[in-house]
Every structure is written in structure tokens, then in C-alpha cells.
Amino acid sequence: MRTFVLYTRGKTDSGFKLEDLPSAGRIDLICRCITSALFLSYKMRKGNRIFVVLNGPPRPPVTLCFNENSNFYPDERSIALVIKKLLSLEFDKEWKEFENSLVSKRSFQEIIRELNGNFYVLHEKGKDLNEVEIRENPVFVLGDNKGIPKNDEKIVLRRGEKISLGKESYLSSSCISILNWICDRKGIS
Fold first, then answer.
1. CATH code (residue 150)
2. Number of structural domains in the chain
3. What is the Cα–Cα distance from 111 to 143, expressed in whole angstroms?
């Protein structure tokens, strides 16, 4: 299974407006990453999933999980509506489901510890992707526009390596699309 983990500083409540996603803790960025991770043209990818860890106020960290069974269209508004509903549910550390998507009060470090696979942290100063052999069951870990805090990054690097798509800083959603393209071409799932 191909897994993406997105560390964000997104707000952890459902009080955002669907008409103004950028000011809602960058829910727009999160929606684009989900689309890049899960969709091909007019259909869902098989065998992909994405964990989105929200580290913003007002609650402690919240993790959302989406996969090929999640029920929404690839547009930002449809995905944001599911996020809004997930965040409005009563939930704790156990996964709670809505529309085949999940929410939990798990932190970034808890998610990393629970996952199995070959870990790769995306960073401009990582090893050039052309020099890295991506292995089966990759877990690609990305940050939002501010990156992943050093302490959290260290947890991931105990299990994997830092890789780079180049010296430029690309949008997280673009990185996900590039990684999917590379894995698709090499037949890595």
C-alpha cells in the first residue's frame, strides 16, 4: 500500500466556512493533497491512503484518514465538507468513521509509530530522488508550507530517510502527484 502522511498546522475544529477554505487553517491545501493522493482522472486510485495530521488550535492534534473507499468527489468543497463533518463528530483515540473516512485524536508521532512500510521524508535538503530506490509499501511524509518540526522529523528518520525532489520547495500536493507518477511508472505500490 502507498501511504502519504501530511503534517499540517490546520485547525482542529469544524467551525470553518466552505466559502473561505484558505483562512480555515489551510483546509484548501489539505483538500488538494487529498485529491493528489487519491484520485486519477475520474476515478479513485486503488491501494493509496493519506493521513492528515492537524496540529492547529483549538484541540490537541487530530488525524484524518482517507483511502480508496472514501466517499467524495475530487473538488475542494466536497472534500472540505467531509472534513467538516469528521471534525464535528464526537471522537477520541479510537477511529470514528464518516463516509468511509476516519478521524481520531492520534498525534503525528502516534501515527508514524503505528504505520508499517518504508519511510521517506520529503525535504529540499534530502537525498536526490534519482539516487534513491523507492521500495514497496512506501510511506511518504510531507509537511505543509512550514515543514515538519525537527522533533517530529527525527521520529520518522529513525525508520527511514530524507529524500528530495530538488532544491526548490514545491507545493505539497504537487509533491504527492510527482511521487504517485514515479511509483506508477515503476510499479511500486
1. 3.40.1280.10
2. 1
3. 14
